[in-house]
Design a protein that fits this description.
This protein has 511 residues and is α/β, with parallel strands linked by helices. The protein folds into three domains: 244 residues, Alpha-Beta Complex (2-enoyl-CoA Hydratase, Chain A, domain 1), CATH 3.90.226.10; 189 residues, 2-enoyl-CoA Hydratase, Chain A, domain 1 (Alpha-Beta Complex); 31 residues, no CATH class. It is 38% helix and 17% strand. The protein is built from 19 helices and 17 strands. The N and C termini lie far apart (61 Å). The structure holds hexanoyl-coenzyme A. The site of hexanoyl-coenzyme A has 16 residues, from helix 5, strand 6 and helix 6.
Length: 511
């Protein structure tokens, strides 16, 4: 018996060695952790249960039958816990055939995907891999197809998180692209469909991996990634924090954590947050941090379309999604990028039963040819669509401007929001006073005195929350300092909200 036990231990040690000491050293030299080290950091200490450690590839082409057969075949899979909650995980091992996906490697991943869906628990994929294993041809492509299909089946059922921690290509970017969130590590991770060498061959373009698909590109230009971190350790610790915000699935409801922050806490400084000059910006994040539990806010896509802020926070220990126009960037205007960013976030929250709190200070949609040619109509419609189809509790606070179509879009009463409050500083109108007067009193434009009088008349009538409140479009005009308390009470009242929709196979959101 001792011999058998020793043999098992030997096989385990061999499997844990992955591609060997030299390749592990190279991995560390690049500032990257190994697949197993990453899992250890992500999960609670000692909670990882590994599956399929001894799986090997079955390829015989291109001398693969003569070369090494490394147990595990380039991916470490299993499950464990994050702060006590079950999480499934697969972590690509770059030291084994560059983490590339073979038929058996794919079967390991699909087993974990199927289990995660069955157990209704989140799945985290850690990517550091060069796509389909070239030597396996269509067997690898088929394997990816199986992974992709399961990504889609799991979408909206369990949270799927992808962490990109090395050079990733082909299927190792397409599978993440179908998950809910993608996070990267600066300077060591890249995402591209085809790498710089192929780009050079096909288009004769010379580009570095960083400029083609580094974290900066994907968090500021393409919006493929939702955030980036300095190193593997920071990224994985932040993933633990994110998981704490997320429901395990689409049925369980939001997690509830103990909070020391009382719900009826008032913050007098909010009474002076809005500058006297309506054209002066202020930081909407100050409001978010002062309103949510313990100022704890996990921002999504912080460096992309920063004119809108999206992220997770808690009120009374329960997760909420925050969407907020940011007056500090482009005056908080809605453009195509901001609309798309917020629409995707709203849909995630709605799919997983996360209530949404929306802070509105928006001067309208951004005019111009660049926006129109870029499909502003379709992208703006995404956000309108996302809010209108949402059945989760929706609480909206207008702090200052709510102009034009953007008023409707930003979780107005008309698109289905449940509780709509405005600060006394709110201005709800078709447009700002200057623009309005120049259109409806065009004949008076040559007379500055008349124009000034007309502008004052317009401001007195429309640049307040009361016209909307008189119609019941705003449920109450609230004191800024009591915002947290009013939101907490609204969310408590809405906790068991039920909204019916007629049956359909699925909607047809303008993609
Ligand atoms: C088999 C691979 C591999 C692959 C890398 N390796 N990619 N083996 N199949 N796809 C192996 C290398 O041979 C090498 O083995 C080791 O992994 C490390 O690779 P390097 O090239 O030395 O590393 P690096 O310079 O860091 O470059 C990493 C890389 C590059 C950018 C990922 O390897 C690369 O471009 N690989 C090919 C990417 C690709 O085109 N994949 C197919 C995509 S098609 P040794 O033995 O030397 O350590 C696809 C289809 C899916 O995925 C469908 C999508 C819709």
């Amino acid at each position: 018996m001792r011999d058998i036990i020793d043999k098992l231990e030997e096989r385990r040690v061999q499997a844990r060695c992955g591609g060997g000491e030299q390749r592990i050293a190279a991995q560390h030299k690049r500032g990257k952790l190994t697949a197993r080290e990453r899992i250890e950091l992500l999960l609670d200490a000692g909670s990882f249960e590994e599956f399929d450690m001894f799986v090997q590839h079955r390829c015989t082409d291109f001398g693969m039958d003569k070369g090494d057969k490394i147990p595990g075949d380039g991916v470490v899979t299993g499950w464990g816990t994050v702060n006590g909650r079950t999480v499934f995980v697969f972590s690509k091992d770059f030291t084994v055939f560059g983490g590339s996906l073979s038929e058996t490697h794919a079967q390991k991943i699909t087993k974990i995907q199927d289990m995660a869906v069955k157990m209704r628990a989140p799945i985290v994929g850690i990517f550091d891999a060069g796509g389909a294993r070239i030597q396996e041809g269509v067997a690898a492509l088929g394997g990816y197809g199986e992974v992709f299909r399961r990504n889609v089946i799991a979408s909206g059922v369990i949270p799927q998180i992808s962490v990109i921690m090395g050079p990733c290509a082909g299927g190792d970017v397409y599978s993440p692209a179908m998950t809910d969130f993608i996070f990267m590590v600066r300077d060591t991770s890249y995402m591209f469909v085809t790498g710089p060498d192929v780009v050079k061959t096909v288009t004769n373009e010379t580009v570095t991996a960083e400029d083609l698909g580094g974290a900066r590109v994907h968090t500021t230009k393409s919006s493929v990634a939702d955030g980036a971190y300095e190193n593997d350790v920071e990224a994985l610790l932040q993933m633990r924090r994110l998981i704490d915000f997320l429901p395990a699935n689409n049925l369980d409801g939001v997690p509830e954590w103990p909070s020391h922050d009382v719900p009826n806490r008032v913050d007098m400084s909010l009474d002076t947050l809005i500058p006297d000059n309506p054209n002066k910006p202020y930081d909407i994040k100050e409001l978010i941090l002062k309103v949510v539990d313990e100022g704890d806010f996990f921002e999504i896509q912080a460096t992309y379309a920063a004119n809108i802020v999206t992220g997770f926070a808690r009120v009374e220990g329960r997760t909420v999604g925050i969407v907020a126009n940011q007056p500090m960037v482009l005056a908080g205007v809605l453009d195509a990028d901001a609309s798309r960013k917020a629409a995707r976030f709203v849909r995630f929250c709605d799919a997983f039963g996360i209530p949404i709190v929306t802070f509105v200070d928006v001067p309208g949609f951004l005019p111009g040819t660049a926006q129109e040619y870029g499909g502003l109509i379709k992208h703006g419609a995404k956000l309108l669509f996302a809010y209108s189809e949402a059945t989760v509790p929706l609480v909206t606070i207008i702090t200052r401007k709510a102009f034009g179509g953007a008023y409707d879009v930003m979780a107005s009463k008309h698109t289905g929001a449940d509780v709509n409050y405005a600060w006394p500083s709110a201005q709800i109108a078709v447009m700002g006073a200057k623009g309005a007067v120049e259109i409806i009193f065009r004949a008076d434009l040559g007379d500055p005195e008349k124009i000034a009088a007309r502008t004052k008349e317009y401001e007195d009538r429309f640049m307040s929350p009361f016209v909307a409140a008189e119609r019941g479009y705003i449920d109450d005009v609230i004191m800024p300092h009591s915002t947290r308390k009013r939101i907490a009470r609204a969310l408590a009242m809405l906790r068991h909200k039920e909204a019916e929709r007629p049956w359909r196979k699925h909607d047809n959101i303008p993609l």
